[in-house]
Amino acid sequence: MCGIVGAIAGRDVVPVLVEGLKRLEYRGYDSSGIAVLEPGTVRRVRRTGRVVEMEAVAAQKGVHGQLGIGHTRWATHGGVTEANAHPHISAGVALVHNGIIENHEQQRERLLGLGYTFESQTDTEVIAHLIHHHLRHGSADLLAALQAAVKELTGAYALAVMSADEPERLVVARMGCPLLVGLGEGENFVASDVSAILQATRRVIFLEEGDTAELTRNGVRVFGPDNAPVQRAQHLSDVSLASLELGPYRHFMQKEIHEQPRALADTIDAVINAGSFDPSLFGADAEAILAGIEGVKILACGTSFYAGSTAKYWIESIAGLPCDVEIASEYRYREAFANPKHLVVTISQSGETLDTMEALKYAKSLGHRHTLSICNVQESAIPRASELVCYTRAGAEIGVASTKAFTTQLAALFQLTVVLGKLHGKVNAEQEADYLEQLRQLPGSVQHALNLEPQIVAWAERFAGKANALFLGRGLHYPIALEGALKLKEITYIHAEAYPAGELKHGPLALVDEAMPVVVIAPNDSLLEKVKSNMQEVRARGGELFVFADQDSNFAASEGVHVIRTPRHAGVLSPIVHTIPVQLLAYHAALARGTDVDKPRNLAKSVTVE
Ligand code: F6R
Question: Where in the numbering of this chain does the SIS domain appear (predicted)?
C-alpha cells in the first residue's frame, strides 16, 4: 500500500512522476504529492484525493525540476489530510515512504527532545528528521545519513530521499516493501512497481531486503545490508503498456473480467501444449518434492483465500491428500501444529501481502520445509521466499477488486491438484486425459458465461436499490458464493454475506423476507437437489431468488424465482465458470449505484500492512 516513484534526469521529471503516480494509484488513493528540486530549494505539492487533482495544482503553480519524488498514499498513521500527505520534509531533506515504522513513537520522543517539531501525525516524518539529524551529526552525505537512519528503524519501508543541498543524487532504501530501480540513458528512476516507470524504461534492478542505493543521472550504485557495494541482476520487464491502458473499456474491472478467457488460456498454455500435467510446471525440483508430501496447507487472504478454499475440495477428492486452508492473518498469530511433510501453498495476486508473507515465514519457523507460491507478479516477495513457484499469467490486474487473478489462481490450483493426483497414484492416464479435455474447454466456457452480460445487467439494476444480499452455494461452489458476496460488498457497499446453502436453516434464514435478494449458485452437480430444497426454504419466507443454473439443469423461472442459465456443466471446473456471473453482477450493480468501481472506498490493491 502506498506507491512511490522518483527520477533524476536531464529533463523535467514532473510528467514522469505524475504518470507514475497515476499508474501506482491502485496502491492507495487517499492523497498524493510530489517534491522536486528547484535551485537551492525543494518545492512540494500535495493534495488529498486523486492524482489528477494534485497534477492540476502542480501545473497551475508551474512546478518543474530534474530531480523529484512522488507518492500516492493509503492512510495508516494519521487521517487523510494534506499535512499527512507525502513527501515529508525536514529542512531541505524530502522523502516518500511506503510501509510502517513500528518504533516511530520512541523516535518521535527522541527527535522532539533534539528540538525537532512535527507537522503531521505520520510515522514517516520521523524518518525525514532522523536523516536530517544524521546529516548534521557526522554523516558525510545524504546516502550515509539514510544508511545510518534506517539502522535505527524497525518495521517496513521503501524510501526515496532527496536533499536541496545534494542536487546530483537520489537515495533509496528497501526493507519489507517492494522497490526497484529503473535504468535509463542519462536518467534513472525508482518505483514501487515497474508500471510506474514503463514509459521511461524497461531495464530494472529489483532491490533486495536491506539494500540501499544511490541514483545519479549517469549511474546507480547498490549497497547491501552491511552498506558494502553489491551487484544486483538487471531484468528486462515484459509488462506491456497496453495491459496498463483501459482501451475501449470503462473500468479496469470490466476490462479484467473480459480478459479472463485469454488470461486462463495463457495460464493453462503449458499443460495444453504438453498434453499432460507435468510437475515441472512448479519448478525443476518439483517432482521429488510433490511426490514426497503427505498433505497440503494453504495460506492466503481475501479472494485468494477463496481460491484456496475451492482447491481444498479438489485436492482432497482428486489427489486424495488432506488439505487445510487458513486465513493468513489468523494463522500467523496462533500456536499452530506443523507437519513438515505437508506442503505450504501461499496464494497471492500481488506477491506482497504482508499477512501472507508473515504466515509463510511463520510456517517455515514451525518446521515446514516445502513451500509453493501461486502468484501473479514476477519477482515479488512471496514467490522469492518460496521453494516452488507457479506464476499465473493473468497480466497486470489494476482494478482493486480481484477478478482475473482469482480465476487464474483456480486454474493453477487445479493443475497442482492433478499433478499431485498423478504423483500420488490417484489420477490415471484416462482421468488425466479427461481433466486435460475439461481444461481445454475452459476458456470457451468462460466466454459463454461472459455472453450472459445483458441478462445480468437487468438483475444488477434490481440489486442496486437493496441494502443486503445473501449468496448461497454448496460444496465446490460455496467458495464461489463467498467470492460473489465479497465482490458485491467491496464495490457496491451493499452488505452481502455468503452461506453454504445447507447452513441457512441454522440461523441466517431469520434474515430472509421480501426485501432480501438471495443469489444461488446452482450448477448441475450431485448437490443440485439439496440446493433446490434450500431454495424452497427461502421462497417459503418470501425471499426473492436469483439463480445461476447450468444450461442442462432443468430449472424453470417462476414467481419470485429468476434464473440465468450458464453454459453446459463444466465438470470439476464449474466453480471457475460460475465465478463470471457473480463478478458481472457486482460490476453492474456498482455501475447502477454510481460507486467508484476500480477504487472502492477505504481499500487499496496491495495490502502491505497488518
Ligand atoms: C478482493 C481482493 C482482496 C485480495 C486480498 C489478497 O477483491 O482483491 O481480498 O484478494 O487482499 O491479496 P493478494 O492476492 O494480492 O495477496
Answer: 285-426, 459-600
- The answer to whether 576 and 260 have CB atoms below 8 angstroms apart is no
pLDDT digits (tens, 9 = 90+) for 458-492: 999 999 999 999 999 999 999 999 999 999 999 99
Mean pLDDT for all residues in the chain: 95
**Atom nearest to 607 CA in ligand 1:** 11
Side chain identity at 485, as an amino acid letter?
Answer: A
Report whether residue 303 contacts ligand 1, using a CB cutoff of 6 Å.
yes
- Which domains does the chain carry? 3-244 (3.60.20.10), 249-447 (3.40.50.10490), 451-610 (3.40.50.10490)
- Closest residue to atom 5 of ligand 1, CA basis: 302
Q: CA-based angle 21:600:483, to the nearest 5?
A: 120
CA geometry: angle at 527 spanning 522 and 530, to 5°?
90
Say yes or no to pLDDT of 362 above 90: yes
So what's the pLDDT on residue 76? Answer: 82
Task: Please state, in angstroms and as integers, the Cα–Cα distance from residue 410 to each residue in 190, 420, 442, 501, 566, following that order.
Answer: 33, 15, 12, 22, 18
Joined together, the cell numbers standing for residue 363 give 510456517
Instruction: Say if ligand 1 is within 6 A of residue 408 CB.
Output: no
Strand order in the sheet with 468-473: 495-500, 468-473, 517-522, 544-550, 561-566
Which residues, in sequence order, are CB contacts of 335 under 8 Å at separation 6+?
Answer: none
Nearest to residue 561, comparing CAs of 504, 524, 592, 517? Answer: 517
Between CA 538 and CA 522 the distance in angstroms is 14
For residue 512, what is its C-alpha cell?
430472509
Ligand 1 within 6 A of 348 CB? yes
Alpha-carbon distance 31 to 367, whole Å?
Answer: 42
**Please, which pLDDT band fits residue 242 given cuts at 50, 70 and 90?**
confident
Which helix (H) or strand (E) element contains residue 265? helix 260-274
Find the range with the poorest average confidence among 103-112, 149-158, 236-245, 394-403: 236-245
350 lines ligand 1 (CB under 6 A): yes
In sequence order, which residues have a C-beta less than 8 Å from that of residue 513 and are 6 or more positions away? 541, 542, 543
Residue 427 has pLDDT above 90, yes or no: yes
**Using CA atoms, how far apart are residues 360 and 371, in angstroms rounded to an integer?**
8
Q: Which of 181, 236, 204, 214 is nearest to 5 (CA)?
A: 181
User: At 156, which helix (H) or strand (E)?
Assistant: none
Q: At what angle do helices 14-24 and 51-61 cross, to 10 degrees?
A: 170
